[in-house]
Request: fold
Amino acid sequence: MFQRRLTWFSILLCSVALGIIARLVQIQVVQAAEYERLAERILTRRPEYVPAPRGTVFDHAGRPLLTDVPTADICIHYGALTQRDTYLREVARALRKRGDYPADAELHDIRADLHAQIDEMWWRLAGLTGVPQPELLERAARVVARVERWRAATRQEVIREENQLLAVVEDVGNEVAVAVRLELGHRPWLRVVPSSRRVADRADALVHVLGRLGAASPELLAADPLRGDELRGLRPGDRCGVSGVERLAETSLRGKRGRVTLDYTWQPLERTEPVRGRDVHLTIDLDLQEFVLGLLEEAVLERPEMERAGAAAAVVDVATREVRALVSYPVYSYARFPEEYEQLRRDARRLPLLSRAVQAQYPPGSICKAITLVGGLSDGVVTPATRFHCTGHLLPDQPDRFRCWIYNQYDGITHDMADNPAGQDGESAVRNSCNIYFFQVGQKLGPQPLCEWFSRFGLGRTTGMGLIEETSGIVPDEAWMLRVAGRRHQNADAWNFSIGQGEVTITPIQAAGVVAAIASGQWAPLRLAYDDTGHACGAPPTPPTTFDESALRVLRRGMWRVVNEYGGTAYKYARLAAPGYEFCGKTGSAQTPPRPVAYRYTFEWPGGRRASAVAFVEEDALAQVVDPGDETPRCVGRHTVERYPNLDEGERLPAHAWFIGYTQPSATPRGERPSDKVFAIAVLVEFGGSGGSVAGPVAKRIAEYLLRGPETRNQESGLKDEG
Amino acid sequence: MSDRPILNLTLLGWGLAVPVLFLATIGLLCIHATDRGAAPAADLGVADGAPVTDVGMLTRLYERIGPQTVRQSVFLLSGAGLMLLVLWPSYQKIGRYAYPLYAGVIALLLLVALDRFIDHPLVEVQRGARRWIGYAGVKVQPSEFIKLALILALARYLRFRSSYRRWWGLVPPFLLTVVPMFLILFQPDLGTLLMLLPVLFAMLFVAGARLRHLLSVLLLGAALMPLFYVYGMKDYQRARIQVLFKQSTADEAWHMDQGYQLRQSKIALGTGGLTGTGYREGIFVQYRDLLPEEHNDFIFAIIGHQWGLLGGVLVILAYGVILICGLEVATVTNDPFGRLVAIGVVVMIAAQALLNICMTIGLAPITGMPLPFVSAGGSSLWANFFGLGLLVNVAQRRPLLIARPPFEHQDE
Reply:
């Protein structure tokens, strides 16, 4: 009996031993590769990234405009910010392993000590950085909240940021960085990470063009062309260009971040240094830009105080289509933007945040007549010799509508009386800016072909610089009319469009593009920035459009006469004082309603209760109607209650003053395509009144500045300084 | 059976000594490899930049070998001495003191359990458990010695009886077992507590208790397990059982938290592969603290890490040899007390080894169970060497020529 029982017992134990050996084989042979991989992972920490400095933005003359200055951020691990148990346990283990704690110390006790150390860190950090502790904790809470938002957005259980060091105190000076590193550097959850600060030099004149950096939004992350690139792709929390050139040249300016892989005890295993981003060279000349800004400011300040608004100008080198100046007035301070932002966006009268040169859409007014003429001549509805009588008003029975500007301004005078009783041909119609001539041409062309001609001159689409602020303006073709106004074209549309009124709008940079097209014979996309490989930033260039040279000759002769012939609309204002060069141009005065500066917003609560308040921005109105703790209502309506300029009864609102023109050597045969120092200039002064007298002198001084030698330039700027 | 030559007994003695020696050596090697107190050779001459010349040879040797290793060596030597001491008198003489011994250990256990209610200086709390009793630096784990005391007491009780072949006769042996289990529950030390049961069952089984009785008790116990799980266990104990069923989850956070020990142990084994990383090689030896209790409860993982599947199987084989030789000892002797003691000791060693290896490879819940003769630790070594001494003692004594073979009950 005993023997038999012993046998059974032995068999039982043998099978158990075999079972154990089978399990050992499973772990050590079958799954060995899997465990090797896990071992690799427990010995390697997640890679940490070192931000790379962005490239520098230079102006045309090689002056640095935006530079990354090295600085440092104090980063704290998310696990320490939240005092998460799993993280602290991991740290406790590693610290014990590193020898910071005795080998037999209990994890539990180490963790308690870590909690105390983290709390202590905050007040020491406050002492070192000079940021009060409550403020530090608040920043930490903001960082945590941000990560939680991202996690909510990604719908993942755990996101990468929860295992990363996150910047809590940004941009600390070198001394603070060194002090923090010395005092707190051995804390594994704190790291002083080299970072950089964007510093702008003389940037205020082109603050709109340069744009800004901001946190990478989910939209930017999704649209990032380098998405998926571990070292170059955007990651949540990165700063990247959100506007202007910073955005336009983002992929060039953005560097390649460095990567540090650490082992279990924070010793680096692998290290890749960050690579600085590529530099970007703007085609803009900083001196010219500042000069133009000064001129615009003067022009605006000359206006009566209650009509002052903004102004814009664009200068294009016609040979290369490079934008030499892109000025919007008013500007704001690049450096103080963060503090002033709330105030800037509420400035309804001056709209300082508006990048007028590319963003604001204005009715082109008479500068559009240049396109109407080329269209009429090219399509053969008129010849250069075709003449129309200027009768003051287009429709014989309606003297109050569709009038010529001269009939308006000098009560009853027509161009037939003032200039030539035989009527106006194309050339003189441009010189005199005779509305009646262009009404006739427009009528013969029809509204849709007119719109097609606008498009050929680059209206209705962006100029190809690639700035995201740039708007396309409106070419109110048949489709647009049906979509937006809900009607078909009418005869009156052709009359309006032909003189640049009605629905058609244009940006100042488009106007400069039109002039460049006139001067060179073809429309081509404009260029604003090149990276240091010579690659132009922005959209791939659209193919150029070439125009009929014989039509352009008529227009160019007309534009020459506008400036250089006695009686031309800009003769008194825009004739150049630069020897050897001439100016050809076209004036424009675009009638426009005043701008809304205050709206009445109506809000509705879910219960049906309504309230309204007056403000420029919606949230200000909201703040007026919502009590603390109240539910947030929905905005159900908005209407304008105040406009600017705010005119008294009977006062006439001044039109936007336009001037477009190009420079040419005096030796250029009249009407021929010029070469050498051909600059296209477009100037707009909001509510400036007469294009010739307000915008013309600005354009003239820009042209003179461009054409005179450097000595005179210096003299001029010297004089300006003294003034 | 009774006319076996004496040489065979010596062979059995060798059969027990060689695997134990093997296990003790491999244990000592592992403890040395993971001994964090041992200074690397290069560092020895220099401390704080200045050459240290006034350090004595012994201190240097101590530092070179490492404190843990030295401790273990001392325990091994003293354990071997204890074994020799146990060999001196006949096991039957020792058997006479079985009940007083049992009572003494129970008293110690009572003292430990008492600390739960009245804090006294003899017992200190470690990780929420009271296991050690001691004074002035000398500490023992009474729960290690209760196994032996129980074996002796049970053998003493069962040797000439057959009352346990009836239902009511099972009560005294069970009572002998349940009392210390109850006391250990206060420590608590679930591993040791459960270790007493296989010893009891094996001894009853061998003594010839009726199978249906034993099976009934086992079934009853199994039926009560869910109740015990819900009401009798603490959260951390339940968690350890849950670890067993959740170990193949893909949830990394869980592996970094609850499943950490088991995961690390399996990684240590897995990276060992077929032949291991080599002695003192491999990340689990080179880095501190990747595997908690690496020189103690999880020493089998370190063996498997350094010597791979080969080393692991060799260790299992060594226990197998001990088991076979121990069972042979029990078979050869016809003294019922000797047979029961031999069975008890063999089962004690085998069950400990089994549970320890199983928890290392994720087949059993993690309990504080040392690997006999291998893991660091004085009490465990002493208890096991004491048991080994008893076993060899039984092996060395001549069988009683005129006695009838014990436990040949007439049924089944």
Notes: Chain A has three domains: 74-195, 286-592+652-722, 595-644. Residues 715-723 of chain A have pLDDT under 50 and may be disordered.
